[in-house]
User: Which sequence fits this backbone?
């Protein structure tokens, strides 16, 4: 279940990034986009770290 959540989360993040690239780098890759991506990655990492603590056997 945790592995499925992990893959699904990464896929959603990639979809958001490709939406941005498809619009056009110069138009879309602005401060807001960078801040959003950093927030998303930070949120993901925090959730993953918490899950890892709950499942110490997870590599």
Assistant:
């Amino acid at each position: 279940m945790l592995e499925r959540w992990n893959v699904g989360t990464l896929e959603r993040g990639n979809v958001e990034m490709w939406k941005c690239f498809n619009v056009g780098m110069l138009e879309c890759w602005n401060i807001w986009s960078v801040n959003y991506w950093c927030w998303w990655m930070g949120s993901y990492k925090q959730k993953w770290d918490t899950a890892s603590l709950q499942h110490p056997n997870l590599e």
